[in-house]
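Task: complex structure prediction.
Instruction: return structure tokens for all chains below.
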Amino acid sequence: MNFISILLILLVLLMLFTLMVVISSRLLFAAISLAATSILVTILMFMLDSPLAAVFELSICAGLITVVIMTTINFVKPLTQKDLLKTRKRRFKKYVGLPIVLAIIGLLASITIKPIALKLPKIIQETNVLNVLWDFRQTDLLGQSILLLIGVFGILVLFREGQNK
Amino acid sequence: MSEINVRILEIFVPFIVMLIVTGFYYILATRNLIRILLGAEIITKAITLAIVVVGYVTNNIPLAESLVVIIIITEVFIIAVSTGVIIQIYKHTGSVDARYIRNIRG
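Output:
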């Protein structure tokens, strides 16, 4: 099997798991399917020679985010068996046409979007990821550290125990 | 771009478009706040994949990787804060349905 056919198989699997995220009526299954899509994206990134991005994707998206989402699901009241049957029927109606619509959109995209016509960015002559991160993306890193502070303060404000009580 | 790189882009572009459409449809069609988060995750995955592929075919992997790392870390903050908001909404309304948070009373 050559490189391109392996990529194609992985992409089809990725699409199937994404559809599972959308269609599954239980939230827990949806979260697990999302973790599976993360793993597939990781494999694709490894195949495309991006090991650092792949490691981040695997550890953060497939690990941390799945755990955070599952914890949130645990906080929320689960559906009863009756509700589940009702939701399943409603979800089936809502998403039954989605794979067909997606197939049509994919076909149209493959016909209309030609890679040659895409304008691709200029090449930066730097081979080390960390050098690029520290030399060319300094503003991004600054923004990221501000975002970290905002995130921490946001969570502190959200989960602060009421002092007046 | 070499022949194989053009072929790789041709394969990836339809799938990335389909993933983005799926994510947007999921966000628009559902009323569950946790599912809206999952939809946002799907869109982010499509975007990260697109950046990595473009980095690979243009022989610009370090820049693509650094961008993806920044996107993933930002994604974590978004998920952490929005799950906190969802839990608070659940505490107040007893549901994670978006219809119950329409009445903002100040």
